[in-house]
# Entry
Amino acid sequence: MRLCLALVLVLLAGSVLAEDRRVEVGGQQLVFAEQGAAPIAWHSCFPDCSDPGSARATWFTPGDGYMRWTVVGQPEVTGQLASAAFSLAVDAAEDHVLISASSVESFGGRPVVIRYRLPRQGYAIDVSVESALALQLELATGQGFIPEQLPGFGSIYSQVHSVLFTAGELENIEPEDGETVSTAVHPGSWFGLRNQYWLWLINPQQKITGNTAIPAANTPLIRVGEAGEGQRLQFRLYAGPTENESLRAVGVNLDGVLFAFLWDWLRWLCLGLLYLLGWLYGWVGNYGLAIILLSLAVKILMYPLTAIADRWQAQVNATSSLLKPRLDEIKRNYKGEEAHNKVLEVYRQNGVHQFYTLKSLFGFLIQIPVFIAAFDMLAGNFMLRESSFLWIVDLTKPDRFMALPFELPFFGAYLNILPVVMTLLTILSAVVQQEKELTPQLMKAQRLKLYLMAAAFFVLFYTFPAGMVLYWAANNLFHLLKILPARLLSNSRS
# Structure
């Protein structure tokens, strides 16, 4: 009976140390060589590497990045360690697979044993080193980990960073050319690499030093260690997606890495929208539709605040129309301090504060946090990867309706339709919207501001991920549908 159970566990381990020394278990796929005690290739998958349709991160492959153990301050021993033969053994348990790499030869009577404990579910890998040598782990991700480089402002989503996450704060470590930055990494901290959708982070059990250098763009090189004589280096490694449930399963507050650059209250707003989007997706089964419904849901939930903002804006418009003739007259006939005093007198006579226009600004500002939270949530939402909608192949990339026969500086080589639709909806809303409190001249000035804002958003969003642009386009559509009936009713009466 025990023999049968052992055979089942070995089979469950996936491809465990076959001829290519390949290990596949849960969300990890590693390839080991006979030398060096470190994998020569590493992929992480979501939800599982056995599923060919899983999303996949390639940390490194032979000739494209690497992971290796080095000996601190002893380059000649590092060379021996990298080429030394190691005996690899696998212990397949019900919930994990343990890979042990033991040095066949000793280094002056100093053996090295390195163990990797890979879970069958989740992405938390435990690594331990038993060595009298002072070792460091060195990682350089390959070109396969660099995201597709988006043009324009979309390039901010195409970066690879070295990061330190500690006490709820996420810090990008960005050395200058040729510089190495050393960072103290404490047991409660996580140090490593990330791109927009994947993380490779180390959480040590004792204080260690993390070093970062950037030999080339988007290819940070990190080193972590060291284990002194007679010490045992132990750390937990997260190699997986920036996906909320996967991060929460690790514990130690690693899920705090999501939206960590935001204030706590704004981060909680992001998480609320993330859960709402997930619930809507469970209902409709398509993330494109879920984003449109999210925009509608936010419109409905925000209605009390937008109603206040609209009322404040109407009051400012009415006051501006009332004051404009007198203010224009002062502008024509007076200069300098005299003009300023005349303007203040007009405000006093009408019971208006000189900063009354800030009221409309406050009405706008109370909506800004939700705007920021929605866009941060959509920008960092791992589940949108490779999700399609209509002509959009991937909601985390520009919609790419059609390839252009040429490449435009900043805008790239594709025609993106969603930013065009978003801009046209903004312009149409500006044309349709009729503010009865405004004089024709002020209404013309307000429309000009809306046209300029539409142009600015077009440039900003043109190369942004399609999911973000879809949300804003839907928001503009719902605003148009809100104001259109009032305009049609006004026209019918006139």
